[in-house]
UniProtKB/TrEMBL annotation:
This is Predicted DNA-binding transcriptional regulator YafY, contains an HTH and WYL domains. It comes from the Bacteria. Residues 2-57 form the HTH deoR-type domain. It comes from Seinonella peptonophila. The lineage of its organism: Bacteria, Bacillati, Bacillota, Bacilli, Bacillales. InterPro entries: CBASS_pafABC_assoc_protein, DeoR_HTH, HTH_11, PafC-like, WCX_dom, WH-like_DNA-bd_sf, WH_DNA-bd_sf, WYL_dom.
Amino acid sequence: MKIDRLLAIIILLLNHQKMTGKELSERFEVSLRTIYRDIEAINQAGIPIISYAGKNGGFEIMEHYKLDRQQLSLKEMISMMTALQGFHTMLGDDTVKLLIEKIQSLIDKDKQTQLKKHSEQINIDFNPWRINDGAQEKLQQLRLAIDNKQQIQFMYTNLQGQDRFRTVEPFAVVLKGFAWYVYGYCTQQKDFRIFRLSRLTNLRTTDQTFTRQAVSIEEIEARWGRLQANTQLKLLFQPTIKARVFDYFLPKEIEVQKDGTLLVTTKYHEDNWVYNMILSFGAEVLVLEPENVRSIIEKRVRKIIQLYESHAK
């Protein structure tokens, strides 16, 4: 649409010192004649564009001109851009990229150096160290399904290693810690469920539409949270694993002992995930309570030993 192109030209000229007609025509895949008409229309709208002839010529918006910033301070706009750039690294969304350009256009050219300095000091990157190449595509597909209120289908691997086919009315995609989750209504379970994106395969969007139910993200999370915290654990960690302990648990849950060991008292939903989490600390952790969890961990350790003994050369 022409109005979109005119707005995009204004933003580009606000963010760049100068651009030639050829650069603009190639950027928007239109003729030079069309670009000249667009520049004239923008001038008539009251936005002063100066034209420079010659080898270093081009178009430029008059210095010190800026769009209305709606009372946003420079610090507020920089904070918004920092957050948006973080989301752009994860989502790869052209809409987010354009929004960053729009906000940047509201900042005076003489303040751009301050913006660049700040972006080098604080950088938000939601991508994990081990990048899942398919996550970005899944997120884009899910967002479209949510916007269009279309059911999705996929295979889901649960904590027991079982693959289950699911048909879901997607409600939201949520970033929790280092993982993305899909919140939605599962037609098989006839209830709201939370699915971890990394365990979701063969995702497809169906033609079946749905009416969004009157439930909030907070209500779904509250139900999930109650399921998660039904077992109190007491774990004793060796000092050598101190860094990981502070990564995993809240400071109020950790008590450093006189001998340097760390006593952790926390609550989790008791399932395979929590058993595997404990085992991931290897010989650096001892389960003190409850007894049934201690027994399960001990049995799994013995099973690991038997596995290695059976494959010993």
